[in-house]
Design a protein that fits this description.
Largest sheet: 11 strands, mixed
Number of domains: 2
CATH architecture of the largest domain: 3-Layer(bba) Sandwich
Number of strands: 25
Shape: globular
CATH topology of the largest domain: YerB-like fold
Oligomer: single chain
Radius of gyration: 20 Å
Distance between the termini: 17 Å
CATH superfamily of the largest domain: YerB-like
Number of helices: 8
Helix content: 10-25%
Structural class: alpha+beta
Length: 399
């Protein structure tokens, strides 16, 4: 099914002004090292990291808000359909979405972002003890249960089912071209504002500090940051291509094209330039990390098949920066500890100041880049053709 193309009216409506003013860039963003002005810093000093689940179903495209996220995680939700966990602190998005449901692996990735990061989503995978739905095999994919266990519910968890309007809203102009579940949106400002007040059962206000005055980043350490490599030392490795499942490569295969002049990677999603509807421009990143993790089926009797990932221990990593590739490993001692990205010598990889994009793929999936990627891409026009170890034959679903 082809992705719906928004009308010119909708595109014009969604193009928004930057969320930060033009000022001397003297202030370092704590979560990705990008440089901002003093006005932006004055804003982020009053709030805590916010993560929003944004879907990648074909009917959800083009999404809104991914281009201004400081960090983006990407992984499968179920049935080979990928989703994004977009992280915001230093810059927001006036329109973000479509927002979709929670998944356990995104929660476990979010747990490393300090004390009680904000988590915006629409419901989630769950174990319904009344009906038994999703409860098989010990319910390893029970995202709502994990939120409850972590003490996030009614606190830093911003579930649309609890909060409702006007913090969340429906974009009815997308109808009837897309299904109803692909129409939920919010703004980062509305989410931060809600979290900073006590309302609708919210137990405490969460700004940059909690109700006891503890800052979100107490005992939290940022990555090491570095500036762009000078032009003469930038590499030429391009493109980068990978897929998540072998059964839906044309819809969810990923490709990045390196722009050496601007030192950014331009994203291609499902064979098409990945556009942010807020800006009508292609999404880019300064850092593209591809991590492998052991994937397994939740076996929870859910139609489409929830999957879970082992995110403790270590696994293979490819880090693309400055037109070069670094082969290494990721390490995570505990689910609450910061994931480390290490080169082959065991040294932690510094982050090039700017957007960090982290794709989570099943272990054994192949990532091709440079000449090898070009040869594979030439076999299938317009889509990243990547040989992957079979992982699933499950049909795509829209939940």
């Amino acid at each position: 099914m082809a992705s719906p193309k928004p009308s010119d009216k909708v595109q014009q409506k969604q193009i928004v002004e930057p969320t930060v003013p033009a000022e001397p860039l003297t202030e370092e963003c704590p979560i990705n090292g990008a440089m901002y002005g003093k006005t932006a810093k004055a804003s982020w000093d009053k709030r805590r990291p916010l993560a929003v689940v944004i879907e990648n179903h074909e009917e959800a495209r083009p999404q809104s808000g991914l281009s201004t996220a400081q960090v983006v995680y990407e992984g499968v939700s179920e049935g080979g359909v990928t989703r994004f966990l977009a992280m915001y602190l230093c810059e927001g998005a006036k329109n973000v979405g479509p927002v979709r449901s929670a998944r356990v692996h995104f929660i476990n990735l979010l747990r490393e972002w300090g004390n009680n990061p904000l988590y915006a989503h629409v419901g989630g995978a769950n174990c319904d003890e009344t009906t038994g739905s999703g409860c098989a095999n010990g319910a390893p994919a029970d995202a709502l249960g994990l939120i409850e266990k972590l003490g996030w519910r009614m606190y830093n968890d911003l579930d649309q089912f609890r909060i409702g309007m006007p913090v969340y809203r429906r974009d009815l102009e997308r109808l009837p071209d897309v299904a109803w579940e692909h129409t939920t949106y919010a703004s980062t400002d509305s989410l931060w504002k809600y979290a900073g007040t006590v309302s609708k059962g919210q137990t405490s206000a969460l700004t940059n500090v909690d109700e006891e005055g503890v800052p979100w980043n107490k005992d939290w350490k940022p990555w090491n940051f570095t500036a762009d490599e000078v032009s003469a030392k930038r590499g030429t490795i391009s493109p980068i291509a990978y897929n998540f499942y072998d059964v839906n490569e044309s819809e969810y295969g990923v490709r990045w094209e390196y722009d050496a002049i601007n030192n950014v990677y331009k994203r291609i999603n499902g064979g098409q330039p990945h556009i942010d509807l807020n800006t009508n421009k292609q999404i880019t990143a300064k850092n593209v990390f591809v991590i492998e993790a052991v994937e397994s089926s939740a076996n929870d009797d859910y139609p489409g098949g929830h999957v879970v990932y082992d995110l403790m221990g270590s696994g293979k990593l490819l880090a693309f920066q400055n037109g070069n590739v670094i082969k290494g490993t990721w390490e995570k001692e505990e689910l609450d500890s910061k994931m480390k990205y290490l080169d082959e010598s065991g040294k932690e990889i510094s982050i090039v100041r700017g957007t960090v994009w982290i794709s989570l793929i099943p272990d054994g999936n192949e990532v091709t880049y440079g000449v090898t990627a070009v040869k594979k891409l030439n076999t299938v026009s317009g889509v990243p053709s990547v040989t992957v170890k079979p992982k699933s034959t499950t049909k795509t679903v829209t939940n």
